[in-house]
Amino acid sequence: MPGLFRKLLAVRRTDAELPAEVRAALVDTLYAPFASLVVGAVSGGLVGAMVAYRSGDRWLTLCSIAVFFCGVGRILSALAYRRRAPTNEPATILRWERIYEVGAWSYAGLLGLLSFLSLVRSNDPGLQLLLATTSVGYAAGISGRNAGRPLIAIGQLALAALPLSFGLFALGGLFNSGLGAVLLLFIFGMMDITLNIHDTVIDALVTTRDKAIMARRLEQQAEQFDAALKNMSHGLCMFDAESRLVVWNERFLQLAGLPPQAVEHRMTARELLQISIACGNHRGMSVRKVAAELGRRLSSGVGGQTLVTLADQRAISVTQRPMPGGGSVMIFEDITERKQAEEAIARLARHDDLTGLANRASMRTRMEEMLAALQRGHGRVAMHWIDLDRFKAVNDTLGHPAGDRLLQLVGERLRATVRRSDMVARFGGDEFVVLQAPLLRRSDAAKLAQRIVDSLSAPFDIDGQQVEIGASVGIAVAPADGGNVDQLLKNADTALYRAKGEGRGAFRFFEAEMDHAAQLRRVLELDLRKALAREEFELHYQPLIDLTSGRIAACEALLRWRHPMRGLISPAEFVPIAEETGLIVPIGEWVLRRACADAVKWPETVRLAVNLSPVQFRNHDVTKQIVDALAQSGLPASRLELEITEAVLLQDSEATLDAMRALQKLGIRMSLDDFGIGYSSLSYLNKFSFQKIKIDASFVKNLERNDGAIAIIRAVAGMGADLGMAIVVEGIETVEQLERVKAEGCTQGQGYLFSPPLPVAAVGELFAAGAGTIQLVA
Q: 495 and 403 share a domain?
């Protein structure tokens, strides 16, 4: 290291003594590779854009923007330099050198900072790999490119690579610290190589008047450089003014695929290229033309950068830098992995990484292209918005890996269902979009939608398990249903909502009245968000009657919304919206608190029944909410009955059953609501001990003419008697229905025959007037 600093001091002394024309030539070498500078700046800008898009981090985004504008500034300064009047005026030369120095150091420093931030502010390994390879590649490339001004090159090297090293040390750990130490050694090694190349370049410039002396010195320097060049990660070779090879390293031979014994000192560039072609490194005339172009550049003294793809598919970047007085330095870099990484990143920017389908951004781009084509001519495009019907149940019960595999299989089926001209995209989660174009007839869209529904309704095999989900499809057709992407997405989503609402496993086209209904629903949702704060909700209670004694065994709390403009709104209209938006959680908490506060005033023999939504059970605070409501009201836990549906158990059986058992241990009773209309009621009765089963009102309607419903009620009543459960029949409206369910052994009844849902004050009057008893028909 002391030797390195001595070299730096010697460089400063040497630079101070350089003739003006030599210094001017060195500054020319800084600005001469204009195309390379533009490529580097644009590449840095693209990397910054990808970083900003992928990371989402504010500081990474700001730093990426700074990289972009710094690169633009460097391009503008290089353009200005190329248009200046040639001069050897020392002050002018020094000013242009300082301009380049500021831009180069700023750009390198920003790249280094971006690498550092990616390590300390991001956990994305792809992002970290991209920035690390960019910074290290930039640092390695500038050592040869700016060797004529070594202090500038070393500054760029340190600013680009040191932050990455510091970031690795900041991460901690033996492996990261080791990488940071190796990077420091790399920096010092590249500094030494830069200084050595600088000596060569200076010698060459100073001795331009005597080519014979320059040739001898180059030969001597080739021997001196040999040890250093062997350790370079880049391949390097140097040609003199006669395009003859005078210096090369082993890495150059490896990257070019050349046998060491075939390469000789003073070999011409054309001979070297012929050996490379004979070794099978290039195939096809196009590659030979690239080789010929390199030869012409050597002889013409024009620098530049070329990407060569070898026969083994390796990508080699060849950078040529002309030397003052004739000759060139060529640097070879294997950028195969970087190119593959860039292609992978570009693909990720356009495709979904799980399914390989086009992503949302690609879908929008394609749709915009299709709409632009429609404006120029005739035709139609159909957008199919697809939502998987029971994906969440699979994801929750079988696990996320199974859910991911299911999404992949769905993508494969969709690709197999559509034409090559159609596009399949994963829009997000379990939603997919198919763009069908060209569309000749509206019926063609209906046929494709039906094929999609049929295809996704067939069972999927996931690790030996048969899974059935199904799908709903909403269709919007352009240009009739919208002239831009957002409008089409909105209308397709509206049609999808209708398809799901009218019965899953179906498709619907967008219709104008749907938009009106959707707007009304959005207005209702906005009002619903304000209803709780405005105290627009109220509770009504409907009695559950003991069919033996006629006494009121319990009262079920039923939510009502008294809208200031629309009056009472049916729960069937607003509860689904509350569940979809998550508003059911705070509303449900309010119901628990208010119902418990009302029920504590009833006779001690009357229980309170409260329905719980599946969405409430997904909220892990539901147990605490129930306990708090009981504690605040003073209602004993034994007087509370929680009514749940099978949908609660479907979402996560083990976690839900654990929560239900915990509540039951407190003395709270559990009732299985809407029994018989779900998927697997008997299995849940086996898993959990319910105190009550409520038979859905649909079995009581037309009971006199429905023998099947009678048989089901009889079977459930018998099962309840064997298991010690109360059997409640909902929807009793006639004396005949009452007598029949009593005869079948049902223990409790609920319906308008006994009482409609009543406001809390009317319930109190009912208890006061009848002592909690309703006269049953004899």
A: yes
The total of other beta-carbon atoms located within 10 Å of residue 33's CB is 21
Structure tokens at 128: 């970290």
User: Residue 759 is encoded by which pair of tokens?
Assistant: 């406001």
Strand partners, 322: 328
Q: Quick one: 542 and 495 in the same domain?
A: no
Least confident of 76-90, 298-312, 453-467: 298-312
Exposed (0-12), middle (13-18) or buried (19+): which is 566, by Cβ within 10 Å?
Answer: exposed
Asked if pLDDT for residue 220 goes beyond 90, the answer is no
723 CB-near residues (< 8 Å, 6+ apart) = 685
Among 326, 350, 374, residue at a domain's last position: 350
Domain boundary among 302, 332, 350: 350
Q: Is 80 helix (H, G, I), strand (E, B) or coil?
A: helix
125/133 Cα distance (integer angstroms): 12
Per-residue pLDDT reduced to its tens digit, 531-547 = 888 889 999 999 999 99
| Rounded Cα–Cα distance for residues 744 and 716 (Å) | 9
Do 568 and 667 share a domain, yes or no?
Answer: yes
| Per-residue pLDDT at 55 | 65
Helices 360-376 and 485-501, packing angle to 10 deg: 110
| Cα separation, 449 vs 473, whole angstroms | 7
Query: Which one is predicted more confidently, 434 or 175?
Result: 434
Q: What are phi and psi of 18, to 5 degrees?
A: -65, 140
Domain holding 423, by residue range, is 351-510
Full strand arrangement of the beta sheet holding 507-509: 423-428, 431-439, 380-388, 471-478, 507-509
Looking at residue 717, its amino acid is: A
Say yes or no: 307 and 437 in one domain: no
Classify residue 707: in a domain, yes or no.
Answer: no
Q: Write out the two tokens for 435.
A: 């763009």
Tell me how many helices (H) and strands (E) the chain has. Answer: 29, 22
Across-strand partners of 562? 568
Measured distance CA(427)–CA(424) in Å, rounded: 9
CA distance 264 to 571: 90
Q: What is the CATH number of the domain that holds 422?
A: 3.30.70.270
At position 247, the amino acid (one-letter code) is: V
Q: Are residues 573 and 478 in the same domain?
A: no
- Residue 209's pLDDT is 40
Residues 33 and 90 in one domain: yes
| Residue 251 and residue 186 share a domain | no
User: In Å, how far are 130, 344, 715 from 115, measured between CA atoms?
Assistant: 9, 19, 70
* Calculated CA dihedral for residues 219, 225, 226, 228, nearest 10 degrees: -170
d(CA 113, CA 67): 10
500 is a domain residue: yes
548 falls within a domain: yes
Q: How far apart are CA 566 and CA 571, in angstroms?
A: 13
Cis, bond preceding 636 (omega within 30 deg of 0): no
- The model carries a pTM of 0.47
| Residue 700 falls inside a structural domain | no
From CA 353, how far away is CA 347, in angstroms rounded?
9
Residues 401, 322 within the same domain: no
Residue 775 has φ and ψ, to the nearest 5°, of: -70, 120
